[in-house]
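Sequence in, structure out. Go.
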Amino acid sequence: MGIRLVATVTATSLLALTTAGIASADTASADTSSADTSSVDRKVVQQALDQITQSGAALGVQARVTDGRQRFTASSGKAELDGNRPVPENGRFRVGSITKTFVSTVTLQLAGEGKVDLDAPVVRYLPGLIDGRITVRQVLQHTSGLFNYTNALPLNPDEFEQIRYKSWTPQELLAVSTSKPLDFEPGTQWSYSNTNYVVAGLLVEKITGKPYEKAVEQRILKPLHLNDTELPGDKAGISGPHARAYYTVKGQPTEITRMNPSVAWAAGEMISTTRDLDTFITALSSGKLLKPAQQQEISKTTAVSPEYGLGLQVETLPCGTKVWGHGGGIPGYSSQLLTTPDSKKRFELNATSGPTEGNPGDAFNKLLTEVFC
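Output:
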């Protein structure tokens, strides 16, 4: 894994794959009667989160763990550089590329309704938009060959600071990509490209006749009551409780919490919480959002794309446990969403960057092993 929307500008990008707080029960969902049968040791989780923040790899981190009927949240570090406020354990954050799983889910819902054919060329629905050989499936699976537009953007802190509030249209983002040749012939290779989900967002808009964010809201956010999740558009701030993020510009610590997320659009603009992400991935893995045929499609991998389905990372951990989910990174924030296919074990994490870079060592692997193995 390690897939992210925009290269996170500090070492916390390491956490997109892969947070002083004490692991605490999630009062809304904890079931202490099952704690004795759980294989997850909260102390080990807390130690790993502390290792991440103490190493300087993140200023703050929050995590949510589900193992059977036992559920708890944990945090480490602090919510702001010049203060001691703890990271809110259900604080909001930018989820980056986890947005892609929501967009893919809506696209697959449309396929289940007979409104889009996954193996049809995108230009059937959006004439002239991209190379006529590229199919809807290839866009969702990152096998289209479309150049990744974020690779051409100025993303190091000194440069990004100059464009952090710029408003981008999806057409502008797509134009950055289509000004370059394809990276490879469609369908012959796998290469992660945020451009694919700009195309997917435009496809959803064309098929539904409404802004893609409205389609996501009506089809996923409202039915699942994800009240702390939003697609902010040009809105620079984060509403509600949240931790602040930083990077270093011209040698000085600079807050990066506020930015215009339209640079990510359907590839990664979403804001959410660990609770809402947990509700979403539980509904998705249990078949509540997709019809059976599309449920099989979302996690279907191929020889060309062995660890990525349709907007869903699929991986087998070294211990043999299979997990689904997605990572996400956008300047200041790195996130991870993982579940076993039966949703019995789940893990959500967000880390906020500080102005210094550190090495988290094996802390993230320790977390994965403790939760899933």
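Check: The first strand starts at residue 24 and ends at 25. The mean pLDDT is 90.
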